[in-house]
C-alpha cells in the first residue's frame, strides 16, 4: 500500500510519535510525505520515505496528483484546526481529492489509529482491486506473464479453467 504523511507545524511531533509507534507496520509499505514532515519521521525512525516539497511550496499538490492518478491508498494528515493556514486552499483541494477518489484519510490521532489498525488487518486490501482495474496506457505497457496467463485462460472454454 502507498501511505502518505502530512502534518501541520504544531502536529509534527504527534505524527512523528505515531510513526514511531507503528514503525514495524509502516516498514512493509511505500511511504510518502511532505518535506519537513517526512524528514522528521526519517530522523526519528528507520523508515524510508519519499519526500515531496513542503506543503505550502507545492507538496500538498504533489500528493493530490498521486491521488488523481490513483497512486495513493491512505493519507494520514494531522491537521491543526486552531491555526489558520496560508495554503488552506491547497489543503481543501487535497482533502476534496481524497473524497472524490475514495482515499481513506485520517486528520487526527483517533482516526489514524483506526485506519492503521485496519491496514494491519488487511481491511484496506480492497484498494488493490482498484489498482488492478485501473486503466493503463497500453502503448507504454509491457505484457507480464500474469497477463499472458489471463489472456490464455480467457480464450479457453470455462470447463478447462481450474
From TrEMBL:
Q: State the reactions this protein catalyses.
A: dihydroxyacetone phosphate = methylglyoxal + phosphate
Question: Per the database record, which ranges form the MGS-like domain?
Answer: 1-162
Quote the InterPro entries the UniProt record gives. Methylgl_synth, Methylglyoxal_synth_AS, MGS-like_dom, MGS-like_dom_sf
Its EC number(s): 4.2.3.3
What residues sit in the active site? 60
Q: Which molecular function term from Gene Ontology is one that the record holds? A: methylglyoxal synthase activity
Which key words tag this protein in UniProt?
Lyase
Superkingdom: Bacteria
Cross-referenced NCBIfam families: MGSA, PRK05234.1
Known role: Catalyzes the formation of methylglyoxal from dihydroxyacetone phosphate.
**What family does this chain come from, according to its entry?**
Belongs to the methylglyoxal synthase family.
Identify this protein by name.
Methylglyoxal synthase
Q: Taxonomic lineage of this organism?
A: Bacteria, Bacillati, Bacillota, Bacilli, Bacillales
